[in-house]
Every structure is written in C-alpha cells, then in structure tokens.
Amino acid sequence: MQTIAILGSLFFWNNIKEHFAVFPHVQFIHFPYTHPEQCVDFIEEAASQSDIVLFAGSIPYYYCYEKIKALSIQATYLPFDELTLALSLLSLHHHERVGLSELSIDLPKMNSFYQVMKEAGIASTDVYVKDYAWVHEKPEKIANLNMADYVHYHKELYEAGKTKVALTSLHAVFIELEQLGIPAKYMVESKQTFAAAVTRALDAYHHQLLASSQIAVVSIHCQENLSHLHPVFLSTLETLSDRLHAKVMPAQQEPYLIISTRGVIEKLEPSYLRSLKEQYEQQFGTIFRVGVGYGYSLHEAEAHSSQALFFTTKYSETSTVMCLVDEQNRLYGPLFENNNKVALSSNNKHILEIAEKVKMSAKNINVMKQFMLVTNNRPFSAAELADYMNLSRRSAERIINRLIEQNYFTFAGEEHPYHQGRPRKLYKATTKWEI
C-alpha cells in the first residue's frame, strides 16, 4: 500500500475525499494549510511520512519547488485542465444563471479559457479573465505572487457593477472574497482530473522503484600496480561494499568489481564519494579509474560498467576519473571533475550542529547519514549500525543513546530474529534528523 500526503486546504480535502474510493490500496493523509506559502514549513515532514506528495494546485507546489528539487521529493500537483474550467462554467450557468460577461475569472493560464470557448463554439469577447501564467514559466518568481492583487481584481469589477460572480482557482482568494461579502465560486474539483493525477503519480513512483532496483556494477582500475597490496585493497573494498549493502566480486586481476543496486548508488552524496576518492588516493598512493554501469540484468550492468571504464581513459591521467553508463546506454561523466576538493562536512551546517550536540566527529555523523540513506530510514538495531561503522556494539549503543537524548533518534520497537535469544531493540531516525 502506498501513502500519499495531500497538501491543501481543509476545503480542498473535503471536496476530494469522496474520490479516495477509486484507490482502495492507497492511504491518503492530510497536511492542511490556510495559505499556500505555509507548505514550505512542513513539506519535509509530509515527504518523510509518505511515498508521494500531492499538492492541491501549482501555487503551493511552486512555493516548495526548491525543496522538492534539493531533496528529490516524489511530488506533483493536481493540474488545472480544460475539464475543470468547463465543469465550473457549467455549474455556474446552471445554478447561478449568470452569463460569461457577468463573471470575473482567474486561472493558471488564460489560453485554457480561450481554448474551451473555441472548442465549444462560444464567442469569448468582453470576458474578464486574469491569469498567473508567469509562475509556471519561471517558478523562482513565485515570491512575487500576491493574492491581494487577485482579490482586488475581482472586488473592483464587482463593486463597479461589471460582474455578478467571481470564479477563482485560488482558494485563498475565494476565502477572502467570501469574507468581503462578494459572491464567489471555487473551481470544481473534477473526479476525473484527480484520478488521472493520482494515477500518473503512482506510475511515476513505481517506475522510480523499478529503476532503483536495477543492478549496478562498479568497475575500479588502479593506475599503479597494486599487486603487492592486493589483499589490503580488496579488504578495503569489502569494507566499503558492506556499507553499501553490496558485494565485491572475487578477482585476482583488475578491474575490481562491486555489485550493488542503482537505488543505493544514487543515494550516495557527491561529497561522500569525493571523500572516499581522496582517502583511497592517499592510502594507496595512486589514482583510480571508475566505471559505473546500470542494467536490468547482471550481464547488462557489467557491460555498461566496462564501457564507462573505457571512457575514463579519454579524460585526465593525473586525477581519479569516474564515468557512468545507464540502462539506455547514455554516458555521464566525468563525474565531479569540477569539484575535486569539497570537504565532507565543512559546508553542512546541520551536520556540524548535530556533531556539536552529541559530541561526535562530523565524519562519523556523515557515515551515519549514509547508513540511514542506504537502509531507507527503516528501523535498525545497534548491531547493524556497529557493523556498518566498524565499531563495537557497545560503542554503537552509546552513539544511539546520545542521539536519542537530543531527539534525533527514537525507540521503534523490538524484533526477535529466528525466535531465538533475547529480542533486539530497534531504533528509527526522527523528523529532526531527517531535516
């Protein structure tokens, strides 16, 4: 069962909740707001509690646009389409008996209105229409959107006797007009539009899951001959693969191969990979060529990894180079070439803040952050964390207790593996950690 967090007003929620029955295997949860700007304050909490975030419209979505991009949140919004407009106009004509010339209308794109009129064969002259199309063209300009401008637009026309009813696509404007005593109607929430939007969101989510489950093969070639250090280097790779929930393919010659999944690889932050690169270069006194390949089979992923490794020879011979070939044979790289010296922790204020509060190094906090990403924030035991960080279980428990004291982690229950021995305590990151 998937969970969809809906960010919208209580009015919007009440209008669409009757459509939830179309998706019996989806749980819908509500994060209400009175003004779309408020979404910015709880988008991260909504994302942490759901698989998909669905906004009531484009305006709240664009207020959160930067966070959605930065955090790679699976999010979409209920679109405004011609069906929504046509149903709204039909409802007004039937219930209010008002003509087009007696309406003031606001909507995302003015062209939608004229397209509906054209297809219906209706003359659309002398109709008062105002849009906010520029928001869709330049999302970064969302801060310039002023709801008061649209309230004033409808209010001025009504008080001048030019219109009888305001038809608005902005809920905040609808509420304000009602409070001013100006007749107003909110656009009809179409069942078909809602169902289509949710279906598209679910399809995108399942596609992402499928992509994440692709096999990933990482090929590593050392510029210098490390035959005398082969056991040490292989042991280092095995430690890394444990952290990635991956496996090193046994080999007596290069390239060394690590088998993982695309989902795990894509969750590794660039700063973490740069840190590993610098660490290995210093430890073994050489540079590396790294090829990453994705595929739906091991054979395909290994072939793509070999291709990516080949392309690394086309670039620098004085620094480590990494290239990637995906399941569609698309080449990416060299990766991170313009940011070779980005510190693992110095630019992350949140990491430094946690490290200070729990009296741990920023490096260890970053390792824990990678652990949470690799395990998809599922509940974990002290033993799992100890294995991942290469610590004793007692040390891992001390770290967990410090983080619990500062409300970064919380107790999440117990498990009794194989029904033998004592049950193990499980822990989970809180919203405070995830933010």
TrEMBL record:
InterPro entries: WH-like_DNA-bd_sf, WH_DNA-bd_sf. It comes from the Bacteria. This is Transcriptional regulator. It comes from Lysinibacillus fusiformis. The lineage of its organism: Bacteria, Bacillati, Bacillota, Bacilli, Bacillales.
